[in-house]
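Sequence, please.
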């Protein structure tokens, strides 16, 4: 009888405050002599550009820390594949000491990225052949504009499974597709033995068995680490899978941990603070309205539209007068979301405004959950070039009453298409996702042109902060 121990993480989202405890736990568990072998995996969204150190190093700080976790393989999540430019992703794993498995993402020409493997077969110390396949969330509207070709889960599985047939004894999937799609895979591909998943932030404390396939997931942010025991007979067939999770809160802490985590934040802040963006006049000093207005100007300019909308909850802090740094902007708008150019017929734009106005008071204090970090509350919706008359229930575009038969283009965010409050955008909107810049980069580029730096000494000393912790 062979006994394996599988450790796994998912959706760490750059929550470095848990990394010291997780590292110690993994290092100790990886030396477990009560089992024949220990394997360690991650199921994606290990980075999040809302964290200053991740943003400042374009994820390289995450790779360095993940190298110390001794992963045997990982897959990527949407935060790696969509929140970064194509070029950033191409070099994200230049210094990784673990393989990246990804069967459903290709370059535009159909070739496999040079940093990813479609699958990998490893042989345990006792000769069991384990096939590993990685899958990420198939979001064509986001991946295609970022110069990737993403395949459906079915298309990817139907391609890879025949290629590896007969070459493995155990099949494990590393997925960042969410629990519903993991269940789809389990129901339609019974040859799978185990799915180590992520994306939907479900906490499966003892796993979930679907169609004799075990699905595991550890919630989010490194609050838990997955721990699976697998028993395999002498014919290399699985006899038992026993999943559970370990709370990070119960893992050993050391006095130096707090200082280590503070150093991560300090390092990111130092790097971003050395990169100057604009010299803002006094009208922006602690004015949330001014920050929102100029940001709507920015996304309208970027999308080449006359009208735009943004919600106040996105702005965690207002701007300030004087020199605006990348750190200032990162603190104000930490979210990695993209601008979308939406085309709507006048009657549908009217309906969108009605949806906004109907939900306005509810959304003002609505607490956001999931979808990475999109702010603490939704807040108030602001318009640029659009005015609503509540008495007549009329909508005016650029001071003219809306023409129901005319087409209008409005700059919005992917966020507004994903949330359920404005169905018009998702159902009838012709939505063009604009890449590679995301919201704060769009705003920063616009501010740098509108309020250029004059007589400022710009230190371009980028990314030389020590990350030895």
């Amino acid at each position: 009888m062979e006994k394996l121990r599988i450790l796994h993480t998912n959706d760490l989202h750059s929550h470095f405050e848990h990394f010291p405890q997780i590292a110690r736990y993994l290092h100790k568990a990886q030396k477990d002599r009560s089992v024949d072998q220990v394997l360690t995996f991650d199921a994606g969204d290990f980075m999040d550009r809302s964290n200053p150190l991740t943003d400042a190093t374009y994820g390289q700080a995450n790779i360095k820390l993940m190298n110390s976790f001794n992963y045997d393989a990982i897959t990527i999540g949407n935060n790696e594949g969509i929140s970064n430019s194509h070029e950033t992703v191409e070099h994200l794993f230049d210094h990784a000491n673990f393989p990246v498995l990804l069967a459903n993402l290709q370059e535009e020409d159909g070739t496999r990225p040079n940093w990813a493997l479609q699958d990998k077969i490893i042989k345990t110390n006792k000769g069991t052949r384990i096939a590993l396949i990685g899958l990420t969330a198939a979001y064509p509207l986001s991946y295609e504009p970022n110069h990737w070709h993403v395949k459906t889960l079915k298309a990817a599985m139907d391609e890879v499974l025949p290629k590896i047939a007969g070459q493995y004894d155990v099949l494990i999937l590393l997925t960042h597709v969410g629990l519903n799609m993991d269940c789809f895979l389990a129901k339609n591909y019974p040859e799978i033995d185990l799915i180590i998943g992520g994306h939907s932030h479900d906490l499966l404390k003892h796993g979930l068995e679907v169609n004799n396939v075990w699905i595991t997931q550890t919630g989010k942010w490194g609050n838990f680490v997955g721990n699976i025991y697998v028993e395999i007979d002498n014919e290399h067939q699985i006899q038992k899978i026993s999943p559970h999770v370990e709370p990070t809160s119960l893992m050993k802490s050391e006095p130096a941990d707090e200082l280590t985590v503070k150093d991560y934040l300090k390092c990111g802040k130092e790097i971003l603070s050395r990169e100057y963006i604009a010299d803002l006049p006094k009208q922006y000093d602690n004015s949330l309205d001014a920050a929102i207005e100029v940001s709507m100007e920015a996304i309208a300019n970027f999308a080449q539209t006359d009208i735009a909308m943004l919600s106040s909850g996105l702005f965690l802090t207002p701007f300030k007068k004087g020199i605006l740094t990348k750190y200032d902007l990162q603190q104000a708008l930490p979210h990695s979301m993209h601008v979308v150019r939406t085309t709507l017929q006048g009657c549908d734009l009217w309906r969108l405004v009605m949806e906004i106005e109907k939900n306005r008071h509810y959304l003002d204090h609505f607490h956001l959950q999931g979808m990475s970090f999109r702010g603490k509350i939704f807040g108030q919706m602001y318009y640029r070039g659009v005015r609503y008359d509540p008495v007549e229930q009329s909508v005016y575009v650029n001071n003219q009453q809306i023409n129901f038969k005319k087409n209008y283009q409005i700059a919005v965010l992917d966020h507004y298409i994903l949330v359920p409050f404005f169905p018009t955008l998702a159902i009838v909107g012709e939505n063009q996702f604009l890449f590679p810049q995301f919201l704060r980069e769009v705003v920063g580029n616009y501010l740098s042109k509108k309020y250029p730096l004059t007589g400022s000494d710009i230190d371009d000393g980028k990314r030389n902060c020590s990350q030895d912790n």
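The CA atoms of residues 145 and 341 lie 12 Å apart.
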